[in-house]
């Protein structure tokens, strides 16, 4: 392993984080200057910005013919977002979950996951598959904008006012300055993704790991740094609903926009590894589905549930490492997790959710 490889990896991570931040700031201020509601900015521009590293890396990987990295990045990022980021945030402080997330966004996230998995069943993502996924994110974003415009009233103060509106530069050149920020952010994202993919491929070759495992772990964690920072800071400041909403929005964007664009720009169909179809996609879907009963049970994520999420992420990562090293215990470990631990956890979560639902409905069974 060379020093140059580590420079590529670390430099790529840094450029991705800086590029996403610059892009969000420039786009948000430019949108605010033209009278777009801060709420809409948060739902669209910020959601894009925090997932921009995933999009840059997966698009670059797909264009370079490295489909395992492109797909592993999306699956790994979604698993990391829920299990690690939400788990760690819940350990800091119990998280609140809005009813809209439970009733609309989480079911949509689960549906998007099933759609992405279904389209991968034939072993590849075609341009048509990419178009279907990308059309879904356009429809979802359009719905958010239209519904927000209907609900927003002139002069209404929202949580995003201070961050996106108060700092608008009144100078007449401000639009050009903000456009420059957007261009600089895009350039940093492209350069950072190139460095990160190059370093990751070299690392996979040096360690004898598959590109899929690298995408599921190292790259997934690196591209999820904006979500990690946003949710942890939000939880620390007591903005607990933002900590959750950031993750759900990012997962939706990853599944629809990132995979969709990767399928559209790839010169050839993106091959999907059988291990991803039969193991990693099911794990991701189990993680996404687990959000529904946990969120529904009191519309919150408690500390013990956060610890459960973190424990599952550690177990999943341990399995990937053992499997990549060819250890015989890996299959036994996976069978134990899937055959015993996951079903017991699922039963527990659904019992808790059912009990919470009966209490909310005032069922006589609880009296």
Description:
With 367 residues, this protein is an all-alpha fold. The chain has one domain (3-366): NCX, central ion-binding region (A middle domain of Talin 1), CATH 1.20.1420. The chain has 13 helices and four strands. The protein has helices at residues 3-33, 38-63, 67-92, 99-120, 127-151, 161-165, 174-207, 211-223, 225-236, 240-265, 274-296, 303-324, 329-361, and strands at residues 95-96, 124-125, 270-271, 300-301. The radius of gyration is 21 Å and the shape is globular. Residues 157-168 and 363-367 have low confidence and may be disordered.
- What is the H level of CATH, i.e. the homologous superfamily? NCX, central ion-binding region
- How many helical elements? 13
Helix content: over 70%
CATH-defined fold name: A middle domain of Talin 1
Q: How many domains, as an integer?
A: 1
Overall morphology:
globular
| Helix-strand sequence | HHHEHEHHHHHHEHEHH
The rounded distance between the terminal residues' Cα atoms is 65 Å
């Amino acid at each position: 392993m060379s020093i140059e490889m580590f420079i590529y990896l670390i430099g790529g991570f840094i450029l991705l984080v800086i590029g996403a931040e610059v892009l969000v700031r420039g786009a948000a201020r430019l949108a605010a200057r033209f009278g777009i509601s801060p709420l809409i900015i948060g739902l669209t521009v910020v959601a894009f910005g925090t997932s921009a590293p995933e999009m840059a890396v997966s698009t670059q990987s797909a264009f370079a013919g490295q489909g395992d990295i492109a797909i592993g990045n999306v699956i790994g990022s979604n698993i990391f977002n829920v299990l690690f980021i939400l788990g760690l945030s819940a350990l800091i402080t119990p998280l609140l979950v809005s009813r809209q997330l439970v009733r609309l966004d989480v079911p949509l996230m689960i549906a998007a996951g099933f759609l992405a998995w279904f389209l991968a069943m034939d072993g590849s993502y075609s341009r048509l598959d990419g178009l279907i996924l990308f059309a879904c994110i356009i429809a979802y974003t359009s719905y958010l904008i239209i519904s927000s415009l209907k609900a927003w009233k002139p002069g209404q103060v929202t949580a995003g006012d201070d961050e996106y509106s108060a700092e608008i530069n009144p100078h007449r050149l401000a639009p050009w300055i903000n456009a420059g920020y957007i261009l600089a952010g895009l350039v940093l994202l492209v350069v950072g993704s190139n460095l990160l993919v190059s370093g990751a491929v070299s690392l996979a070759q040096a360690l004898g790991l598959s590109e899929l495992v690298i995408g599921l772990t190292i790259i997934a964690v690196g591209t999820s740094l904006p979500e990690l920072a946003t949710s942890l800071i939000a939880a620390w400041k007591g903005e607990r609903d933002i900590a959750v909403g950031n993750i759900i929005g990012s997962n939706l964007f990853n599944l629809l926009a990132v995979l969709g664009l990767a399928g559209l720009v790839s010169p050839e169909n993106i091959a999907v590894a059988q291990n991803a179809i039969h193991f990693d996609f099911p794990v991701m879907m189990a993680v996404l589905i687990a959000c529904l009963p946990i969120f529904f049970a009191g519309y919150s994520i408690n500390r013990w549930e956060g610890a459960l999420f973190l424990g599952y992420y550690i177990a999943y990562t341990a399995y990937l490492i053992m499997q990549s090293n060819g250890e015989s215990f890996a299959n036994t470990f996976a069978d134990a997790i899937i055959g015993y631990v996951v079903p017991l956890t699922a039963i527990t979560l659904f019992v808790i959710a059912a009990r919470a639902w009966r209490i909310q409905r005032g069922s006589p069974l609880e009296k």
